[in-house]
Amino acid sequence: RIALGKKLYFEKRLSINDTQSCASCHRLDDGFAGVDNLPTSPGARGEQGTRNSPTVLNSGWQDSQFWDGRAEDLVEQAKGPILNPIEMGMPDEQTVENKIRGIVEYQQEFANAFPGDEQSINCQNIAEAIAAIERTMITPARFDDFMMGNADALSDDEQRGLKAFLKLDCQSCHDGILIGGETYEPLGKEHAYENQDDQGMYLLTGDESDRMFFKVAPLRNVALTAPYFHDGKIKTLEEAVRKMGKLQLDEDLTDQQVSDITSFLKTLTDKNRE
What region, left, alpha or beta, does residue 225 occupy, with left being phi > 0 and alpha being psi -120 to 50 degrees? Predict the structure, then answer.
């Protein structure tokens, strides 16, 4: 199933015009960290998406998917882009199934991955397979070595950044194994974010209390996933750190604090991508 999912992850025939795959926006080639490093991503027809593409790395640990949490798990998430008119552009599930069923090489591979299913090629199983490969995309970092007791895994600057991160209480939102990705918070707790065009979860729920609420970004590999925030308007990690200090904490961070925290955040990078 994982092998099938890997193939489907790179399968451009899942898009309306055979130009777009999962890997188009969530790149894994050439050291990319599950993103394309664009503010927002172009879809199969060249239309621009409305939100920054989050990294797929370590996504299996997240409680929900997308910036507004509208997908409960990776399986549900995998279905979304395929049928999204701006992204992969397939009109409906039946069209997807008919297209993949017509590719001879997939007929046996789906039968092997989903034995016992009378019709193994269906949208649910396509999503199940893609989710299976995505759950394997786990990236150990030097910070994990530090947490396991290797004090030398982090330099003095990096440890100072960790202390600043904790002293500012950044971990109240960025916690857990992903250093985030588990809760939803308003962007602009203390000061309003400049871009109010996208109102976050409110667009999904219609609940006034959800205005400007977004999923807290997980910080693993954050040094590799610029630009930042849901709209991709923040170009550098240093700018993101400084802006978060002001927006969320009403703190004017010093250059030293920004430098130290940025140094710490780089210890969350996959050791194979450093």
Answer: alpha
How far CA 124 is from CA of 93, 108, 117, 143, in Å, comes to: 9, 17, 12, 36
Cα separation, 143 vs 159, in Å, equals 10
Q: Are 13 and 100 in contact (CB under 8 A)?
A: yes
Is 87 annotated as catalytic? yes
Digit-coded pLDDT (tens) for 260-273: 999 999 999 999 99
Q: Which member of 72, 76, 87, 185 is catalytic?
A: 87
**What whole-number distance in Å separates Cα of residue 221 and Cα of residue 274?**
9
The answer, as to whether pTM is greater than 0.85, is: yes
Terminal-residue alpha carbon distance, the chain: 30
Burial state string for 193-210 with b = 16 or more CB within 10 A and e = fewer than 16: beeeebebbbeeeeeeeb
Instruction: Using pLDDT thresholds of 50, 70 and 90, give the confidence band for residue 63.
Output: confident
Give how far Cα 245 sits from Cα of 30, 251, 263, Å: 32, 5, 16
8-state DSSP, 234: B
Q: Give yes or no for a contact between 71 and 64, defined as CB atoms under 8 angstroms apart.
A: yes
